[in-house]
Amino acid sequence: MGGNHLVTTVTSTQYMFDAEDFLSHAQEKWPNCRVFRFDSEDRTSDASVNVRPAGGVPFNVIHYPDNQTLSTDAEDGVAADIAAWIRSLHPNPELVLWYIDDSFAGHVVLVPGITAEEILSNWVDHKEHDPYAEYPDYFK
């Protein structure tokens, strides 16, 4: 793993929350985070938060205007925790969410109730498992 990570829907017909809901949930989770709103016509993202944990490494969580993707530059363990938190905000099992790295070298299917530890231990390497062959319905 390593690098940036994303939580994303895998079909174009499914959505997570919009920017305002994302920011509201983020401020509940990280009360002292810095909040940014962007004009999505000028940027690829429409909102982000910057979190500076006491004694930890600062990170960003970014929301995209399609309401299908969030990304983070957090370290692996923190990124997995963020992914588990995002899944917990979307408990509907019909919503298919994947945790991926920015090079799509691997993934974890985020099932409702998944923990950060399960995310880290269930990483599927795309060199060993071709997602296009194993999940053809997602990549039509």
Q: Which blocks of ≥5 consecutive residues have pLDDT under 50?
A: none
Helicity range:
10-25%
Indicate the overall shape.
globular
* Main sheet strand line-up: 2-3-4-5-1-6-7-8
Q: State Rg.
A: 15 Å
Number of domains: 1
**What distance separates the N and C termini?**
26 Å
Largest sheet: 8 strands, antiparallel
Per DSSP E runs of 2 or more residues, the count of β-strands stands at 8
Structural category: alpha+beta
What fraction of the residues are assigned to beta strands by DSSP? 25-35%
| Tally of separate helices | 4
Summarize the helix and strand pattern as letters.
EHEEEEHEEHEH
Average pLDDT reading: 93
Question: Would you kindly provide a written description of the structure presented here, covering whatever features stand out?
Answer:
- The chain is 24% helix and 25% strand.
- With 140 residues, the chain is α+β, with helices and mostly antiparallel strands.
- The protein has one domain (5-139).
- An eight-stranded antiparallel β-sheet has the order 2-3-4-5-1-6-7-8, covered by helices on one side.
- The longest helix has 13 residues, at 76-88.
- The chain is globular.
- The model has no long low-confidence stretch (mean pLDDT 93).
